[in-house]
Amino acid sequence: MAEQVAEAAAGSHVVKALNLCHVDVWRMTPPEFGGRALTVPICGDDPGALAAVRSLITDLGCVPVEGGGLDRAGLLEATAAFAIGLLLQGADPRSMFPPIEYAAGPPSR
């Protein structure tokens, strides 16, 4: 979708971001959960547009994370649909991913 928008609006600077959360999450100041700031993935090809969106996300009190170019925006859209579907079933999508210290198995003792 983001690539299609960019193609339809020649000369535009398209960035895919801010689509994983309900509107009420964006009304939180800042969006924090248990002291942890919300991470916001972004996809885009234009460095200036990416910088502007990173700044906006930071101003919201969130942490921007690069997701790749617009060619990866569809993955972000699919992730949103998948995660929201899990949430609506009562599942916690975070439980699919271990904490970073366990990403490669249990930490060494």
Q: Give the averaged pLDDT, no decimals.
A: 88
The tally of helices reads 4
Oligomer: single chain
Uncertain parts = none
Helix-strand sequence: HEHEEEHEH
Major pleated sheet: 3 strands, mixed
By secondary-structure content and strand pairing, the structural class works out as alpha+beta
Percent of residues in helices: 25-40%
Count every beta strand, where a strand is a DSSP E run of 2 or more residues.
5
Instruction: Based on Cα principal axes, name the global outline.
Output: globular
Rounded to an integer in angstroms, the radius of gyration calculated over CA atoms is 16 Å
Widest sheet: strand order? 1-4-5
The N- to C-terminal Cα distance equals 46 Å
Strand content: 5-15%
Description:
With 109 residues, the protein is an alpha+beta fold. It has helices spanning 2-8, 23-26, 47-59, 73-88, and strands spanning 15-16, 32-33, 36-37, 39-44, 63-66. A three-stranded mixed sheet has the order 1-4-5, with helices on one face. It is globular and about 55 Å long. The relative contact order is 0.17.
